């Protein structure tokens, strides 16, 4: 049996027995999309397949630096950080990069923890789509920078003067992908082995930056693949004495790094496209217009789910390929939403506001959930933008929050967010973003020292 044929508990047990494994790798994703996990003995794993297992809920109560939130209700010092129930997803079984015969399974929180679990939050949105008669398909594409650094050297340098793997601005370079063909082939091979196949990969504009487009899949699987790609791209880099970063923007000198999402809906009843209508302008069906309108109208209040860090907002400035308002256009890369006309198979929306640092489960939940609300409400989008969206005035209602704090306050106050994702999730995630913003404000930046130290 091969890993991606595993569908049931019995299948999972069978492949483990076939491979004579003594231990199995299990991982889940925290608020920030960071994969946390461990190796588990075969006996423990078999029991967990049947009954679940317990995992300390601190991973839902700390930040990317393992610092504990002081403002959350779900978990904290006041609860004593108890174990929470976790279920293993048999169908997530995969081979693992450079671990001969080892298997990886994705897990997700259950019970009360399920109300704040990122993967479960996306699943609830997908369940809504199913109840409305739709199957959602999605594909993620990521930009990331590669450096000739290690975790030790980057810290020794204070994350300054880092050496990128290649110099200068050279997007779509055949020289770069040929010179570094070994690296590109290793990325492509990993993606095939771990089943997040890459549809296209190329150098982007900027030193050491690469863009990878992951193949389209059903929404839940697409998010799993995106989350695994981000995790194991970092693993592959570090195994080769390199480092990959998915920060939204790591340097003032270069554009930010995007995490765009392509989305479409099919009718569950017959598999036909819900977005394609050849008789309409740009082949946009009424359902696609309503979906687009929901994404547009709700983008300002859901922004912290797709721009979840303080750093995310340094990317959203005019002229750097990142939108600053909730605009849309047809084949327009200066807008937040890009309608891509095509056939019944390819008609879709590209959600371009997303940054590479977003948790894929939450970014997709926001992009899909907002569109579904638009369909439910029968909303209509604004007029499309033609030309450069950065140089045109837009309705104030389309203005996006400029900071993580402002975005979080809009999200926290949104009744639609609470109805879509659940009050428990909105409260918990809002608290985690407020914590993130407060942690940043505790620090003095280089810009402040340079500007004020001598002169003020």
Automatic annotation (TrEMBL):
Residues 118-456 form the GS catalytic domain. GO terms for biological process: biogenic amine catabolic process; biogenic amine metabolic process. GO terms for molecular function: ATP binding; glutamine synthetase activity. InterPro entries: Gln_synth/guanido_kin_cat_dom, Gln_synth_cat_dom. Keywords: ATP-binding, Ligase, Nucleotide-binding. Signal peptide: none annotated. SUPFAM superfamilies: Glutamine synthetase/guanido kinase. It holds the Pfam family Gln-synt_C. The keyword Nucleotide-binding applies. Belongs to the glutamine synthetase family. This is Glutamine synthetase. It comes from Photobacterium ganghwense.
């Amino acid at each position: 049996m091969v890993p991606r044929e595993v569908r049931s508990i019995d299948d999972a047990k069978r492949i483990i027995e076939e491979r004579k494994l003594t231990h199995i790798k299990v991982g889940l994703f925290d608020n920030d999309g960071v994969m946390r996990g461990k190796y588990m003995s075969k006996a423990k794993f078999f029991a967990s397949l049947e009954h679940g297992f317990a995992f300390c809920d601190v991973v839902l109560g700390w930040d990317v630096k393992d610092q504990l939130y002081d403002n959350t209700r779900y978990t904290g010092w006041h609860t004593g950080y108890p174990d929470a129930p976790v279920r293993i997803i048999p169908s997530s079984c995969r081979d693992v990069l450079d671990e001969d015969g080892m298997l990886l399974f994705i897990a997700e929180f259950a019970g009360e923890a399920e109300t704040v679990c990122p993967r479960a939050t996306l699943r609830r949105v997908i369940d809504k789509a199913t109840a409305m008669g739709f199957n959602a398909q999605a594909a993620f594409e990521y930009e990331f920078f590669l450096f000739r650094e290690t975790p030790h050297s980057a810290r020794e340098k204070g994350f300054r003067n880092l050496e990128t793997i290649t110099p200068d601005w050279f997007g779509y370079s055949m020289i770069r992908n040929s010179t570094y063909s070994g690296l590109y082939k290793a990325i492509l091979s990993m993606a095939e082995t771990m089943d997040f196949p890459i549809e296209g990969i190329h150098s982007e504009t900027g030193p050491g930056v690469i863009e990878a487009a992951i193949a389209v899949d059903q929404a839940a699987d697409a998010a799993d693949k995106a989350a695994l790609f981000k995790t194991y791209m970092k693993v592959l880099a570090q195994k080769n004495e390199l480092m990959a970063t998915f920060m939204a923007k790591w340097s003032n000198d270069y554009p930010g790094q995007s995490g765009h999402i392509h989305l479409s809906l099919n009718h569950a009843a017959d598999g036909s496209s819900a977005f394609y209508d050849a008789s309409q302008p740009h082949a946009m069906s009424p359902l696609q217009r309503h979906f687009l309108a929901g994404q547009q109208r709700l983008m300002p209040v859901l922004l912290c789910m797709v721009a979840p860090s303080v750093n995310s907002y340094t990317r959203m400035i005019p002229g750097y390929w990142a939108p600053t308002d909730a605009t849309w256009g047809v084949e327009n890369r200066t807008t937040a939403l890009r309608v891509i006309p095509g056939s019944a198979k390819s008609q879709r929306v590209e959600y371009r506001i997303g940054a590479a640092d977003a948790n894929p489960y939450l970014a997709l939940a926001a992009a899909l959930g907002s569109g579904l609300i638009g369909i439910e409400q029968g909303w209509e989008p604004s007029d499309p933008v033609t030309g450069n969206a950065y140089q045109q005035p837009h309705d104030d209602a389309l203005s996006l929050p400029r900071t993580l704090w402002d975005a979080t306050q809009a999200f926290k106050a949104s009744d639609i967010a609470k109805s879509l994702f659940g009050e428990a999730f909105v409260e918990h995630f809002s608290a985690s973003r407020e914590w993130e913003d407060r942690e940043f404000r505790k620090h003095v930046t280089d810009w402040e020292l340079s500007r004020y130290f001598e002169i003020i």
